[in-house]
Amino acid sequence: MKILITGGHATPALAVIEELQKRKDVQIIFVGRQYTVDNELTLSYEYTQVEKLKIPFIHLTTGKFSRSISLKSILNIGKIFIGILQSRKIIHEHKPDAILTFGGYIGFPIALAAHDRKIPVYIHEQTINPGLTNRLLARIATKIFIAFPQAQRVFPSKKTILTGNPIRTSILKNVEKPFIKIGNNPILFIMGGTLGSHSLNVHIENILEELTKDFIVIHQTGNIQEYNDFERLSSLRIKNYFPAPHMYQNEIGWVYKHASIVVSRAGANTVFELMHFNIPSVLVPLPWSAGKEQDKHAYFMHEAGVSEVFDQSKDSEELLLLIKKVFFNNKYYQEHFPQLKKYIQDDVAAKIVHEILQ
């Protein structure tokens, strides 16, 4: 059986790929973007990860949907038609038996082309507030997997299955040996998403000397060439500060296991990882995330009593105060995690694979 995987959320896609690779009778191909959206000098996270897994990667050029009319939105319409033509060619040449898309504009033309060939289309929706692409594709989907029960309201109930978000096994594995030398201070883990966050990096740089007085600071900076944040931050050579452009999944798993607090963007996958490991956090929503989904995730965690929310337009000192608030009231935040256990399911990737292959 040949499965084509696509979509804009690479982390859950990779978790399902890990599960599919256990099946000797399954072939996998991945359709996505080779470079980051705004920077054609930086390889995309999905491209680098899929290449490591030795899975065929097919680059697709397509456009985003826009709810407003502008020159950019008109150009995007043209790109969407290019994407549909490319997708028809991909489907014709590779003849997949099923499509699994993880949201985002990249999956739309592939799903349409597959549906035209009567190939089953499966959708996984990671967020509380489903994106436009998955809402549109719901009509043609065979089954829809959702992470949050709140997403059920916008999809047909008969073909919607609550699975949760799959977490990569490489993160969940117990890694006992530390990959850095640490002292007795508590660990503060900072990450700005798969590519890093320049805005968050600047805030951390502004308060770094204060942070390193109390914490071992492990900082996944990303390495977007436009900003060179990693080079700048690593040149500071501050005691108790460990910047890294990227981290392996098992390293992230180790940090999660030992961190006292996390400062991060509020993507759906990060939120599920924080719930799994019971780590209090300060969440910094991406202001321009689709449908304000990161704001919704951040305030979902805040209302559950396990996180504080920082608006990146505010002063860095406010972020410092929130970090200290969460750390010094750690017990309060920890006490609220049990109510979130209902969102964490076992073997999510295996359940999704079972539904597709049965």
TrEMBL record:
Membrane topology reported for the UniProt record: Peripheral membrane protein
Annotated pathway: Cell wall biogenesis; peptidoglycan biosynthesis
Domain Glycosyltransferase family 28 N-terminal: 6-146
Annotated GO biological process: carbohydrate metabolic process; cell division; cell wall organization; peptidoglycan biosynthetic process; regulation of cell shape
EC number assigned by the record: 2.4.1.227
Positions contributing to UDP-N-acetyl-alpha-D-glucosamine binding: 6-8, 168, 294
Superkingdom of the source species: Bacteria
Catalytic activity line of the entry: di-trans,octa-cis-undecaprenyl diphospho-N-acetyl-alpha-D-muramoyl-L-alanyl-D-glutamyl-meso-2,6-diaminopimeloyl-D-alanyl-D-alanine + UDP-N-acetyl-alpha-D-glucosamine = di-trans,octa-cis-undecaprenyl diphospho-[N-acetyl-alpha-D-glucosaminyl-(1->4)]-N-acetyl-alpha-D-muramoyl-L-alanyl-D-glutamyl-meso-2,6-diaminopimeloyl-D-alanyl-D-alanine + UDP + H(+)
InterPro entries the UniProt entry points to: GlcNAc_MurG (IPR006009), Glyco_trans_28_C (IPR007235), GlycoTrans_28_N (IPR004276)
GO MF, one example: UDP-N-acetyl-D-glucosamine:N-acetylmuramoyl-L-alanyl-D-glutamyl-meso-2,6-diaminopimelyl-D-alanyl-D-alanine-diphosphoundecaprenol 4-beta-N-acetylglucosaminlytransferase activity
CDD domains, per database record: GT28_MurG
Keyword Cell membrane: yes
All residue ranges annotated as the Glycosyl transferase family 28 C-terminal domain in the record: 188-339
A single cellular component GO annotation: plasma membrane
PANTHER family tied to this protein: GLYCOSYLTRANSFERASE (PTHR21015:SF22), UDP-N-ACETYLGLUCOSAMINE--N-ACETYLMURAMYL-(PENTAPEPTIDE) PYROPHOSPHORYL-UNDECAPRENOL N-ACETYLGLUCOSAMINE TRANSFERASE 1 (PTHR21015)
Described purpose of this protein according to its UniProt entry: Cell wall formation. Catalyzes the transfer of a GlcNAc subunit on undecaprenyl-pyrophosphoryl-MurNAc-pentapeptide (lipid intermediate I) to form undecaprenyl-pyrophosphoryl-MurNAc-(pentapeptide)GlcNAc (lipid intermediate II).
Protein name per UniProt: UDP-N-acetylglucosamine--N-acetylmuramyl-(pentapeptide) pyrophosphoryl-undecaprenol N-acetylglucosamine transferase
Species assigned in the record: Candidatus Roizmanbacteria bacterium RIFCSPHIGHO2_02_FULL_37_24
Gene name of the encoded protein: murG
